[in-house]
């Protein structure tokens, strides 16, 4: 089955890639979750638009990514969330929360899809998350979650 990925799928490809997958994987996983659309001859324009959007969001060069990684690893990102007396959060910290806090504190935009949280962040503390700034430049970002004062 030939599909066009609409989102990044680990171990398969990035948004805009045309991939060949087994019928069951495409029908039962990728298509119902909206991660892909069926490939047609007229879909080339859609592929070009997704690639242009990804290119605009992507960090331009390896040097820029390395500079961002160095500044990112120098200072942690501080996020304040509502928490109970035991330090347990009401909800969890998402990749969007991390990206928004990073942009507010460092002044640089970070795509939330490039952030990978191992286990959900549901308590106050310090955590390490992985960020894929560029295909060649992985980084580790320290996230400090504090209880918000009411």
Distinctive features:
150 residues; alpha+beta; four-stranded mixed β-sheet; three-stranded antiparallel β-sheet; 4 helices; 9 strands; 31% helix; globular
Structure characterization notes:
By secondary structure, the chain is of the alpha+beta class. Helix content is 31%, strand content 31%. The protein contains four helices and nine strands. The strands form three sheets. The chain has a four-stranded mixed sheet with strand order 4-9-8-6. Strands 2-1-3 form a three-stranded antiparallel sheet, with no helix packed on it. It has a two-stranded antiparallel ribbon with strand order 5-7. A hairpin with a 2-residue loop joins strand 8 (125-134) and strand 9. The protein is globular, with a radius of gyration of 18 Å. It starts with a strand and ends with a strand.
Cα distance, first to last residue? 53 Å
Low-confidence stretches: none
How would you write the strand order of the largest sheet?
4-9-8-6
Number of distinct helices: 4
| Strand/helix succession | EEHEHHEEHEEEE
Care to count the β-strands? 9
- Please describe the biggest sheet, giving its number of strands, its sense, and whether it closes into a barrel: 4 strands, mixed
Taken from the alpha-carbon principal axes, the silhouette is: globular
| pLDDT averaged over residues | 86
Percent strand equals 25-35%
**Structural class, from secondary structure content?**
alpha+beta
Q: What level of helicity do the residues show?
A: 25-40%
The rounded Rg comes to 18 Å
